[in-house]
Amino acid sequence: MSNLDLGIVGNSSVSALISASGEICWTCLPRVDGDPVFCSLLRERSDEKDFGFLAVDLEGMARAEQAYLPHTAVLVTHLYDGSGGALEITDFAPRFRQFGRLFCPSQVVRMVRPLSGSPRIRALVRPACDNGRERRQITWGSNHVRYLAADYTVRLTTDCSITAILEGSSFVLREPFSLVLGQDETLQGSVADVARRFLEQTIDYWRDWVRDLSIPFEWQEEIIRAAITLKLAACDDTGAIVAAPTTSIPEAAGSGRNWDYRYCWLRDAYFVVNALNRLNATRTMERYLGYIINIAAAADGALQPVYRVNGSPEMDERTVESLPGYRGMGPVHVGNQAWRQVQNDVYGSTVLAAAHAFFDRRLSALGNAALFRQLEPLGERAVTVHALPDAGLWELRGTAHIHTFSSVMCWAACDRLAKIAARLSLPDRARYWHAHAERIHAVICTRAWNPARAGFSATFDGDTLDASLLLLADLGFLAAEDPRFAGTVAAVERELKRGDFVYRYTEPDDFGVPANAFVVCTFWYIDAITRLGRRDEARALFETMLARRNRLGLLSEHIDPVSGELWGNFPQTYSMVGMIKSATRLSVPWHQASGGARAAHRPRYRRHQDRAGGARRRGPRVPAAPRRDAPWQLQGRAAGTRRDGARRGARTRRARDCRHRTARRSFTGDRTG
User: Fold this and answer.
1) For the chain: N or C, fewer Cβ within 10 A?
2) Is the omega angle on the peptide bond into residue 603 within 30 degrees of 0, that is, cis?
3) Is residue 628 packed enough to be buried (19+ CB in 10 Å), middle (13-18) or exposed (0-12)?
């Protein structure tokens, strides 16, 4: 691939990246950290012998159009040739409820149909194995092809000509066909019927999920797309949340900063669940709480910053020679050596995430004294390490310092434990943790304050800055009205802001001076100046950041401040989280936007219900306004609202005819009704 103008489909088990021309260029099976079956993202197609992609090549292609079906993770691509021929490709990963449980297999579905003329195509399915080292061996039957590998065999079931698939021969597309690619199991039913049913029910699932989001008045479509993207980063099976579904897309051209992000960083995951909680998507948070509680129980108080999707602690980093890299810019890495690093902020990230279980009454499994006792060893560890050197949240490989952000997160662990203890009516433990929090707070204020800058520094007794200092008020360490916060923001603004973008730091590290800006840092800056009352300025900068998304509304990790080109692993959860958080803070409140008292009657997304043999329109439903920050810095709607996904199995199906007339009318239009 020559750029990150890509879309993503997925189902919280697997995901696939798709180019503007409809090529599936990145998919790992059987899960996101598995072997890349399609890997042309990191090795572009160059000749007929290439493999590692799934494509529908249209002869004489003149142009392409692409968009998501509104409020879904279903991506539709239209291809046009120069002779009036056109076709439609619909890509998705099945996700819906059946038999009282969630169905989200390790499977990608592609549906192809002619739109006009006589388009001549080739359907190319060429999966790779062993990190792109070789093309898979095949066996086939009357309507399937098995792509063999030692660890995981992939089966393609199709109603397309098997000969055309095997030989890659061209044919005129006259009838629709479907491709179902996934685990080596026999498909139950005809391919066309199964693909159609999966599509219908997947559309239903995502639109139901979106209806239950509590979104801000402004930037609704942008936030919905960001929320769906975050949902795709969460693994339903284990509760883990990956930083991104890709590996080794460089942070800047030729920088060598190429890392594997297909794992769960506890810090990143905390920010993700906090953002989804703001939108009322609590199911992801509940599953992640189970993930981190299991990790904490096995860790005996000592946490590493990142774990595998299955909770395993080991992920040794190695270089893959078989893939040249994005735009030929290697190396390509599998694994991430960060698991061996000391990053002391991880204790605060874990306790902050777990704190939701004690204060959010929507959750099915509320926190209790037993869970509190499991968290206390993490607090003790935070007390021990709060003034010790570590690699910091930016994961410096060659140096260690006492990073202010790490220490602040250790303070946050103690502060939240004190509040949890008070919630559980454990006054002795509340006093104990409050005393530790006060002591750590005093240490940070003494050793990290830099009088020459009139702001906090990135390290104890240091004179450098990093963008994580913009979070001091958001974490509750300082009040927004505290002049020390304003001074710190001003220092970051002077030294880390370049044009419209904020760098994470500007000093040389193990790879030299950073060339590109870290996207989420600009969102942190937007939030900080909003807290300082500079709302108009923040809104203008937020609109600028929205304009930097790719055409499908997605962001990567880094951005070139000059060209605006996206770099780094994609799509990046940190960046999408930053966008959601800034939008919810900046949006005009619903009650102001919709006319005072009439706000109580504003419509939510309307729905059709099939009851007593007929479709009945359900009346408008009102989402509760997001509440103000609670003292423990938890976000979200008031207790008692319905959890996403908890009631879908009991719903009767909607009136299908009405639904699919609107769903298939145009992939650029919105759903009516």
Assistant:
1) C
2) no
3) exposed
